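Weekly sync, protein design subgroup
Attendees: M.S., D.O., the rotation student, P.L. (late)

Item 1: inverse folding check
M.S. brought a backbone from last month's batch and wanted to see whether the design step gives back something sensible before we order anything. D.O. pointed out we never logged the input encoding, so this time it goes straight into the notes. Structure tokens as presented (283 positions):
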């Protein structure tokens, strides 16, 4: 209470009260600070299917530009492995180049980053430029064994296929065999990983195989991508679904594990308009 008295007395009392309040505040608990940004610095890992690799490399590179305190190690391990590695907390970010199954969706969540195609590749010396869906079926069932039967040279056809769990093979089988059980001829040879596939197709002029579409395959001078039913696999034909051997791409995370601040920020970036543009352009 401010005492009655002269104006000078009241002014002195008010000044004293102000000083007391300042002292009280300075001696008491500090005022709550505003929210601080969570630290993003550190090294983070991402691994998964080869079809999504270019998009993830482009996304992590741009995220590093925006946040130089982050370092990313990106590798190819396959879509199936990515799910296992994410669930075991071995990696921070997984990526897949195929659709998630209903069972997988119970344990991991995917953030779409576009689409990739499965290309049919032949030896660079092969003059062939186009095959039909029916041609592919006849080649891989062993019904046709010479290129001459398809209007080409008299070379024997040496077909290669990826391992059963490869997303490229699963997409290829869905297209060629239409959901029926794939039945391969005895002359079909299995290759694991894309580099082994490209080297194998290069090893014999009559070879044919499959690989993810994109700059890596397109720039490899040992092989060439051909059109299927008259449609060349390009970024435009894949996006428009005109090219039919297509699979979705996504980055994934565990539904139960705690997400690190930098990884959460990365996922937000992936979902942003800029992130989606970068992923779409990483062909």
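Designed sequence read out in the meeting:
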């Amino acid at each position: 209470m401010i005492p009655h008295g002269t104006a000078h007395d009241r002014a002195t009392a008010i000044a004293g009260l102000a000083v007391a309040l300042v002292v009280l505040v300075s001696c008491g608990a500090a005022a709550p600070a505003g929210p601080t940004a969570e630290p993003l610095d550190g090294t983070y890992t991402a691994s998964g299917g080869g079809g999504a690799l270019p998009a993830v490399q482009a996304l992590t590179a741009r995220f590093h530009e925006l946040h130089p305190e982050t370092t990313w190690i990106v590798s190819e391990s396959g879509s199936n492995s990515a799910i296992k590695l994410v669930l075991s907390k071995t990696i921070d970010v997984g990526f897949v180049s195929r659709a998630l199954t209903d069972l997988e969706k119970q344990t991991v969540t995917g953030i779409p980053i576009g689409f990739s195609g499965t290309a049919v590749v032949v030896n660079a010396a092969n003059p062939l430029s186009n095959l039909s869906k029916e041609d592919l079926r006849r080649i891989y069932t062993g019904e046709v064994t010479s290129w001459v039967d398809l209007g080409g040279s008299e070379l024997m056809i040496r077909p290669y296929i990826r391992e059963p769990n490869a997303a490229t093979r699963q997409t290829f089988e869905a297209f060629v065999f239409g959901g029926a059980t794939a039945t391969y001829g005895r002359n079909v040879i299995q290759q694991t990983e894309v580099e082994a596939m490209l080297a194998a197709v290069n090893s014999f002029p009559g070879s044919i195989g499959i690989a993810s579409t994109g700059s890596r395959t397109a720039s490899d001078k040992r092989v060439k991508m051909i059109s299927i039913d008259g449609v060349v696999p390009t970024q435009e034909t894949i996006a428009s679904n005109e090219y039919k051997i297509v699979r979705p791409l996504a980055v994934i995370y565990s539904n139960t594990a705690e997400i690190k601040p930098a990884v959460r920020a990365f996922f937000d970036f992936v979902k942003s308009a800029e992130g989606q543009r970068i992923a779409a352009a990483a062909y």
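Discussion: Residues 1-36 have pLDDT under 50 and may be disordered. The chain has two domains: 42-116+247-281, 117-246.
Action: P.L. to compare against the previous round before Friday.
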